[in-house]
Amino acid sequence: MIGVKPYNIRLYRLAMQHSSVAAESDNVKGFKESNERLEYLGDAILGAVVAEYLFKKYPYKDEGFLTEVRSRIVNRESLNRLAFKIGLNKFVEYEGKRHSAQSHKSIYGDAMEAFLGAVYLDKGFKFSRTYIINNLLQQHYDIDEVVETNTNYKSLIIEWAQKNGHSVEFAISKPGGGKSNKQFKVNLVVDGEIMATGSGYSKKKAEQDAARKTCDILDVS
Amino acid sequence: MIGVKPYNIRLYRLAMQHSSVAAESDNVKGFKESNERLEYLGDAILGAVVAEYLFKKYPYKDEGFLTEVRSRIVNRESLNRLAFKIGLNKFVEYEGKRHSAQSHKSIYGDAMEAFLGAVYLDKGFKFSRTYIINNLLQQHYDIDEVVETNTNYKSLIIEWAQKNGHSVEFAISKPGGGKSNKQFKVNLVVDGEIMATGSGYSKKKAEQDAARKTCDILDVS
Hints:
Two copies of one chain form a homodimer.
Chain A: H1 9-15, E1 23-24, E2 32-33, H2 36-57, H3 63-74, H4 76-85, H5 107-140, H6 143-148, H7 153-164, E3 168-173, E4 184-190, E5 193-200, H8 203-218
Antiparallel strand pairs in A: 1-2, 3-4, 4-5
């Protein structure tokens, strides 16, 4: 999948191991080895590589733009799709794999990140960076389209609520300490309960962000 | 400051330039050049390096622990302090520097990140990684202390509220899609308004996170 032979195949195996099938560590009692630690690492590496890629691709766009485009590229849904595109889904192991695909929506995206964590540990930053840019970003994303496609998540949620008889409200939560926190924060409240908090450099963007997260949670699309 | 001669001094100068003193770009009308883009990049690089550092330092700790310790290392307050420790504060340029230190609390931490963005672009990942680990993490942080120091932010906020006649409430916001979102989310509500949302792998941790953010916003310590 990465085009070269791994040095340490164990890392890649671990990356495919969801916590539901984790075995207890031989070394430390009570510690279960799953792909969650690698996911944490891969998430950070992917974030850094995509950050630089967008920084250089868009030299005259501000950090609000860069942050938003990055979050569209690395969000759970997008990584889930990516895992299927590169065929990673076939290798992921979790309990009840054959049964409830629905409830395991994020498993593939998580494994995607864990896989990148494994690649980084096995092959280093330079290799990972090239792999992510050449094999993932350039082959499986149309970044200009990502930039332009403004899925209107707010409309999606409002439609969903009307159809299913729920109340929906977008409530601005204080942006906080003036200059120290430039982003707006908005809570999306469904039937009186906060479902998600969105942030962004405008009220509209924060609403969209909250709506996107809620679509993710409620599986609305 | 980084021990070697920069290739491109312009990057480091830009990193010290807060948006309040940004000049319009020669190339693109309406685009102001400040350190905000570099801050976005530096934040990502720092996040990745600290992620790996903790991953290797704590081989038997789960990702919840790693995420939490990382956020303590790279939070705004901690980066502000770091900027002073390495003397970066002397170089930061912003409007009204001599007057209102108070309202510019995050400027130094932001510049710290921008500086790391400049180091990365100028010297590459390997250099940045070594610099961050050897010169920043190992010299200016006592990681074991960071791990053990559990500032009780929740108590701090409750104390502050009692002293100043405010109401404080911690409200659990739905964790969302079951297995797809393992973290708890808690809103900290002051006088009926949400001040911050915290997340964590337990209710207690999410509360602490929300309280820490609120302490940051309200300048409570």
